């Protein structure tokens, strides 16, 4: 594919106008939306109003006037439309890690005869770390098995199965419906981590039979650094859920200020403390931008971008090994390539204004976010990488130094 052909595809892209809704720096090719989404332009005005008027002028009155108090439910209902859930089944709260802990502790308490929590070895570290802590708190074990062995490891004494729908490093995607069905045969609840799925791949939690899920707000939902996460519980499972973390905002009557705790009805019980209002309002802008786009068109473009990227990489950068499945139904919306020198190569790319990221020990990860990634972006990124490899620019000594964030 030539640069002119890439530009022609951009001209024919039905999603091209959505790129204008993001404040992308001129001259920068951003392929890391799978780690931190770009800034929605709408968020600048919303945040200015939230700080100067809602907070600065109206002060505490904005909890009622601007419905700060209802933001977790309101934005949760919007995210429900992205992930294929119903109103009242998703709420925005805390971080992905805390939401995993809330679900795991609540579910293990419902299965007192269980001996272990089950997850995948090589899962995203926070999932494994949180699961280990939840298992220790429940007096049971954490059992980790390979991806290929997950289905066969589900047993009657499994307290809960925790899986990341799209793997953070490889981009491999589980068959959610098949594994949920397999777990249901032994009444084992499944918690799906949607951090690399929500806004990236087609999701229909209801159709897949999923009952519990968590997800990240700052990747494909473009909610900003450290944006609040979300948690999903199917309506019929909510009443039985009693998280170990009981905060005043999760109480049925928070402003009665009573000593005794009574869980709020529905998803309200998944709240703990005071909501981070400014972060919530920024996240809402990102979710609104996602809802403004056609979901089928997003996934179709993601596949086209992936095919273009992997094709160009095979042609122009043959020293890299693709580790992401090529079958669209078995992957997410990022492409990962293995190379022994992926770290310094990625540093050289960033200095050349092509921003991807690195995942240890040897993976260069390039995110494809159809709302704002163009075909020309992909073409130019591979062109820059090919030049870096040909000239061995990545061998500069300063590129061997690891930074705190990779």
From TrEMBL:
GO terms for biological process: anthranilate metabolic process; L-kynurenine catabolic process; L-tryptophan catabolic process to kynurenine; NAD+ biosynthetic process; quinolinate biosynthetic process. Gene3D superfamilies: Aspartate Aminotransferase, domain 1, Type I PLP-dependent aspartate aminotransferase-like (Major domain). It comes from the Bacteria. The modification N6-(pyridoxal phosphate)lysine is found at residue 219. Its cofactor is pyridoxal 5'-phosphate. It catalyses: 3-hydroxy-L-kynurenine + H2O = 3-hydroxyanthranilate + L-alanine + H(+); L-kynurenine + H2O = anthranilate + L-alanine + H(+). Pyridoxal 5'-phosphate binds at residues 96-97, 124-127, 164, 193, 196, 218, 248, 274. It is an enzyme of class 3 (hydrolase). Pathway: Amino-acid degradation; L-kynurenine degradation; L-alanine and anthranilate from L-kynurenine: step 1/1; Cofactor biosynthesis; NAD(+) biosynthesis; quinolinate from L-kynurenine: step 2/3. Keywords: Hydrolase, Pyridine nucleotide biosynthesis, Pyridoxal phosphate. GO terms for molecular function: kynureninase activity; pyridoxal phosphate binding. Homodimer. Catalyzes the cleavage of L-kynurenine (L-Kyn) and L-3-hydroxykynurenine (L-3OHKyn) into anthranilic acid (AA) and 3-hydroxyanthranilic acid (3-OHAA), respectively. Belongs to the kynureninase family. This is Kynureninase. It comes from Flavisphingopyxis soli.
């Amino acid at each position: 594919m030539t640069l002119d052909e890439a530009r022609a595809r951009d001209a024919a892209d039905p999603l091209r106008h959505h790129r204008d809704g993001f404040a992308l720096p001129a001259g920068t090719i951003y392929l890391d939306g799978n780690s931190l989404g770009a800034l929605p332009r709408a968020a600048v005005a919303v945040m200015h109003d939230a700080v100067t008027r809602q907070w600065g002028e109206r002060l505490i009155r904005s909890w009622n006037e601007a419905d700060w108090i209802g933001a977790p439910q309101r934005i949760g209902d919007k995210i429900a439309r992205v992930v294929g859930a119903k109103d009242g089944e998703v709420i925005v709260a805390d971080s992905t890690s805390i939401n995993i802990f809330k679900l795991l502790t609540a579910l293990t308490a419902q299965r007192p005869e269980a001996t272990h929590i089950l997850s995948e070895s090589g899962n995203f570290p926070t999932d494994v770390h949180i699961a280990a802590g939840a298992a220790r708190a429940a007096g049971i074990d954490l059992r980790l098995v390979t991806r290929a062995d997950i289905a066969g490891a589900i047993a009657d004494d499994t307290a809960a199965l925790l899986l990341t729908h799209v793997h953070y490093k490889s981009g491999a995607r589980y068959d959610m419906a098949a594994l949920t069905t397999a777990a249901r045969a032994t009444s084992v609840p499944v918690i799906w981590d949607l951090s690399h799925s929500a806004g990236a791949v087609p999701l229909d939690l209801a159709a897949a039979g999923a009952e519990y899920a968590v997800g990240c707000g700052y990747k494909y939902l473009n909610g900003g650094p450290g944006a609040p996460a979300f948690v999903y519980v199917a309506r019929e499972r909510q009443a039985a859920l009693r998280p170990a973390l009981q905060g005043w905002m999760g109480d049925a009557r928070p402003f009665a200020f009573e000593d005794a705790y009574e869980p709020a009805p529905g998803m309200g019980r998944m709240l703990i403390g005071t909501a981070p209002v400014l972060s919530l309002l920024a996240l809402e802008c990102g979710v609104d931008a996602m809802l403004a786009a056609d979901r089928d068109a997003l996934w179709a473009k993601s596949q086209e971008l992936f095919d273009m990227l992997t094709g160009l990489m095979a042609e122009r950068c043959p020293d890299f090994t693709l580790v992401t499945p090529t079958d669209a139904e078995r992957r997410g919306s990022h492409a990962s390539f293995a190379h022994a020198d992926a770290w310094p190569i990625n540093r050289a790319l960033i200095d050349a204004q092509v921003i991807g990221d690195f995942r240890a020990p040897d993976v260069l990860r390039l995110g494809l976010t159809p709302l704002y990634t163009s075909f020309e972006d992909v073409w130019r990124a591979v062109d820059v990488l090919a030049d870096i490899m040909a000239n061995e620019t990545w061998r500069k000594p300063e590129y061997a130094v690891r930074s705190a964030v990779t």
